[in-house]
Design a protein that fits this description.
402 residues; alpha/beta; Rossmann fold; 5-stranded parallel beta sheet; 35% helix; 24% strand; elongated; Flavoprotein
Length: 402
């Protein structure tokens, strides 16, 4: 089960003339951190906004600008550089460069190698809002879509010129996610997945509640990667400290009862249910209407058992493929095995609560009827990719045996 995110992919990053070029430096840093090999090609105009030396230092490779560059042995850099790339990403892509791509112009190194490429082309537009809205630009963008060029953005917001509107280049982290999504195998196209994430909060009074240390990072990582794999993702999330990923549908559910109601309302047509949320097992019988005042006496709180979301979903007449998470502090695998059998679910993911909750990394063991598959410690996005790849491989045999 190889990760689809940490990659040895070779990406050619094209930089055109625009103030957003300063963001490309951070984008290259993020790509390198994720394991991509980056080759930068700049237009002459781009060098007026950011220096080749900066991008060379960040990428670790020489930057090319001139189509007659003699550093390429056969004097054909437009052929050599494009053939080495798994994909080309132009960021920022100016209105002028988008026009070149749409009409097949090849009057500099970057436009020439884009025309000569045999790999996918991704484009991150960046321009003033009037330039973006201009009918000529919109016609050029329509042509790029027809030519199967992948457009990433743009965003809407405040622009360097002081105006506000569509045309801002996407932020580096968002562009990185777009690149990762492009390279992720679309294993889950046509599948509907409901994922719960984060912690629930069981209120004692208007200002206090019972919760846990779950950050939501593992559930959010699974939702993000599932989207990259082509699934339709419904995310039901509680209290989190992580940035919410872009999904098909998202619903906030604060308490365990809200999460139960939200899940049951949306579960009917789901193919897969992944219960990652750390749902409280108990909640107060009574919630005080006003803040509970401190006194010298001992405070006793009566708790009631919450409904088991995962068990109820698994017990439906025609349940989706159910995946649970077991966060344990001791006898992790033994407790996870028992939980899988007790809830009658095909797969459970075992992890140690002490190190998993709130962390950016995780180490898990996938347990199903075919065996146990340990995944060594890695960032949660990589772990999510491996889990979903395993589920994809296991899902077909599960469906055949239903």
């Amino acid at each position: 089960m190889n990760s689809t995110h940490l990659s040895s992919r070779h990406l050619l990053v094209g930089v055109t003339g625009g103030i957003a070029a300063y963001k490309t430096a951070e984008l290259i840093r993020l790509l390198i951190k994720q394991g991509y090999t980056v080759q930068v090609v700049m237009t002459e105009a781009a060098t007026h906004f950011i220096t080749p030396i900066t991008l060379q230092a960040l990428s670790g490779n020489p930057v090319f600008i001139d189509g007659w560059d003699q550093r390429i042995a056969n004097a054909m850099p437009h052929i050599e550089l494009s053939r080495q790339a798994d994909a080309i990403l132009v960021a920022p892509a100016s209105a002028d460069f988008i026009a070149k791509l749409a009409h097949g112009f090849a009057n500099d190194l970057l436009s020439t190698l884009c025309l000569a490429r045999e790999c996918p082309l991704l484009v991150a537009p960046a321009m003033n809002r009037q330039m973006w809205e201009n009918p000529a630009t919109q016609r050029n963008l329509a042509q790029l879509r027809t030519d199967q060029v992948i457009l990433l953005g743009p965003d809407s917001g405040e622009q360097a010129c002081g105006e506000v509107g569509q045309g801002r280049m996407l932020e580096p982290a968002t562009l990185l996610e777009g690149v990762q999504a492009h390279f992720t195998p679309k294993l889950l196209v046509g599948k509907k997945i409901l994922i719960t994430a984060g912690a629930t909060m069981e209120m004692l009074d208007p200002v206090r509640g019972i919760t846990n240390l779950s950050s939501g990072k593992m559930g959010f990582a699974l939702a993000k990667v599932a989207m990259h794999m082509g699934a339709e993702v419904t995310l039901v999330y509680g209290h989190t400290t992580a940035a919410q990923p872009l999904v098909t549908h998202a619903f906030h559910a604060s308490a365990a009862s809200e999460m139960h109601a939200t899940v049951m309302h949306h579960i009917a047509d789901q193919d897969i249910f992944i219960g990652v949320a750390a749902v409280a097992d108990y909640s107060p019988v009574l919630t005080a209407e006003q803040k509970i005042k401190k006194s010298e006496e001992t405070l006793t709180i009566q708790l009631k058992r919450n409904r088991d979301i995962l068990a109820e979903v698994a017990a439906l007449p025609d349940p989706p493929y159910c995946v649970g998470f077991a966060a344990e502090t001791e006898q992790v695998l033994e407790h996870a095995r028992h939980k899988r059998l007790a809830k009658r679910i095909p797969v459970i993911i075992a992890n140690k609560a002490n190190t998993a909750l709130g962390s950016d990394n995780n180490s898990v063991t996938i347990i199903d009827e075919t065996g146990e598959y340990p995944l060594s410690s890695a960032d949660k996005t990589s772990i999510a990719s491996k889990i979903l790849t395993h589920l994809y491989q296991h899902l077909s045999s599960f469906n055949n045996n239903k």
